[in-house]
Amino acid sequence: MNNSAIGVFDSGMGGLTCVKELHSLMPNENIIYFGDTARIPYGTRSRETIMKYAAQDIALMKKHDVKMIIAACGTVSSVVGMEKKDADGIPFTGVLLPTVQAACAKTRNGKVGVIGTSATIKSGSFAKAIRTIKPSISVVGAACPMFVPLVENGFSDRDNKVAQLVAAQYLEPLKREGVDTLILGCTHYPILHDVIADCMGEGVELISTGSEAAKFACAYLTRHDMLAERETDGEISFYSSDSTEMFRENAESFLGEKIKGSVTKVEMEELTSLA
Amino acid sequence: MNNSAIGVFDSGMGGLTCVKELHSLMPNENIIYFGDTARIPYGTRSRETIMKYAAQDIALMKKHDVKMIIAACGTVSSVVGMEKKDADGIPFTGVLLPTVQAACAKTRNGKVGVIGTSATIKSGSFAKAIRTIKPSISVVGAACPMFVPLVENGFSDRDNKVAQLVAAQYLEPLKREGVDTLILGCTHYPILHDVIADCMGEGVELISTGSEAAKFACAYLTRHDMLAERETDGEISFYSSDSTEMFRENAESFLGEKIKGSVTKVEMEELTSLA
Questions:
Q1: Would the N or C end of chain A have less CB density within 10 A of its end CB?
Q2: What is the predicted pLDDT for the residue at B181?
Q3: Which is catalytic among the residues A73, A104, A144, A218?
């Protein structure tokens, strides 16, 4: 038993898709979420800068004495890699391992597609991770750098022509290869689920990183007897590096409901001094 | 006569459109450019965060002993406002005053449109500035938050369908109002010039902020006898807060040519410690 909170961080709001799933799987758990909204997006930055930001995000989580840290961010997970399994003794997971395990279990024709930010696809991390688990699977990747701005600016409805056009352009190589399983390698992408599903056509299974990371964390905490023992619903506390009001306004589309808990500002000076 | 450099900064690469014009108007001037590529974009962040980032950018310029500072960034200019005319004794200009002066001189029907980032349009700064100069002019603003990602991800050719669709949606209210002059209130937007011009139709004059800021600086330095006296071409030195390689790769589309001078990394710790 362990009543400490689960720590989740992301470059912005996308990781809230993971929080939503965590809360649904383990309603009694306290969760601490940090969205680095003053420095979003991570996915177009250099490896060096992403590593530095991630180290600061992890240090912030540790300050809050969490029992497990989830990098609910495809970019950070890709750059950090699959080997990192703890942060100074605190269990750690990115979205990489949980997601590729799900993809390997689900594909029937052995062709898996991966979409993500430029940094994620450039790292080749999902393809490498899949090959480690099941070398016979062929992997096709495509960077979709416009997907995050589309989501953040409201171009995400199923019938949105702009989203459809951009998706058609980015996903064309994956359709040509005939993948039957598609990893949405960025926690923003579930918001574009319908547009992506329509474009890929029937019979292609979409895998959401945030959701798989949440299932992975649930299994880990259960296996290690680290679940909270609490009669009531757990508390979710939110932290953001930019305006807390903006965070509240934008959270609903990722979380599926309005934020009930507190949102606290993390000053940039604090963040950069941490690691 | 003053042989110090002119300092120009922006959230990223867009301000290079101003550097290009400065170098063309005053080829003998040294120019120092800083692009805050580790924290781009500014335009979707809160006023408080933008003010902090701008203060740090200005402090960095001052460290380099420049003779004039240009905030070649529509968002910073809007948030800082038109009143700021020096930074501890160093002449300062944003793009606001130069651009609205040009717009007021050019409009024939007294209807001016302004497009920019969410922060720029929300601030209402261009409209206020225009009313100060010529209260009879009516101003229509439209936030175009997708334009920066479109430019940064290569969706900017004249015949690009995605860019055309997004432009049609954003610019519709300005067309309906019949503006004859349109301020491109973000230094990224000149890259979308053709798409915007086609959408607005003939007879609408587009005003580029970077270019107007450069003309303003040239006039200021001439009037105050602060031009450089140098036989040879001036040097342009570049600084960026993210990868200098990425900066080099992306600069050409804004600068119109490959970077000849040096590109130096500014560490985030240095930047946040400055102001």
A1: N
A2: 98
A3: A73
Q: Is the pLDDT of residue B44 over 90?
A: no
Domain count along chain A: 2
Question: Could you check whether the bond before residue B41 is cis, i.e. omega within 30 degrees of 0?
Answer: yes
Find where tokens 């994956």 sit: A174
Determine which of A13, A36, A46, A151 to mutate to test the interface with B (most B C-beta atoms within 10 Å): A46
Which of B39, B145, B169 is the closest to A39 by Cβ?
B39
Encoding tokens for residue A39? 């420095």
- Note whether B189 and B120 are within 8 A (CB): no
ipTM for the predicted complex comes to 0.84
Residues B21 and B67 reside in one and the same domain? yes
CA distances from A79 to A73, A191, B16 (A): 10, 23, 30
**For this structure, is A199 an active site residue?**
no
Name the domain boundary from B209, B233, B266.
B209
Q: CA–CA distance from B120 to each of A273, B79, B96, B115 (Å)? A: 30, 7, 10, 8
Task: Collect all residues of chain A within an 8 Å Cβ-Cβ radius of residue B149.
Answer: 145-146, 148-149
Separation CA A214–CA A185 (nearest Å): 14
pLDDT band at B82 (very low <50, low <70, confident <90, very high): confident
Which of A52, A242, A272 lies at the smallest CB-CB distance from B46? A242
pLDDT of A179-209, one tens digit each?
999 999 999 999 999 999 999 999 999 999 9
- The side-by-side arrangement of strands in the sheet containing A111-116 is A138-143, A111-116, A181-184, A205-208
Same domain, B64 and B103: no
What is the tens place of the pLDDT at every residue in B157-210? 999 999 999 999 999 999 999 999 999 999 999 999 999 999 999 999 999 999
Q: Give me the count of residues in chain B.
A: 275
% of chain A surpassing 70 pLDDT: 100
Residue A1 lies in a domain: no
pLDDT in tens, B220-238: 999 999 999 999 999 999 9
Q: What's residue B60's pLDDT?
A: 97
Which tokens is B160 given? 């690009």
Of B45, B166, B243, the CB nearest to A162: B166
Render A123-183 in DSSP notation, one character per residue: HTHHHHHHHHH-TT-EEEEEE-TTHHHHHHTT--STT-HHHHHHHHHHHHHHHHHT-SEEE
Name residue, tokens 């300005």: B174
CATH number where A171 lies: 3.40.50.1860
Q: Residue A158 belongs to what domain range?
A: 97-210
Identify the residue among A117, A159, A166 best suited for mutation to test binding to B, counting B beta carbons within 10 A and taking the highest. Answer: A166
Decide if A90 is inside a domain: yes
Q: With cut-offs at 50, 70 and 90, classify the pLDDT of residue B142.
A: very high
Mean pLDDT across chain A = 94
Output the pTM of the full model: 0.87
Kindly tell me if the per-residue pLDDT of B86 is higher than 90.
no
Q: Which of A80, A65, A169, A163 is nearest to A120 (CA)?
A: A80
Q: How far is B196 from chain A (nearest CA, A)?
A: 16
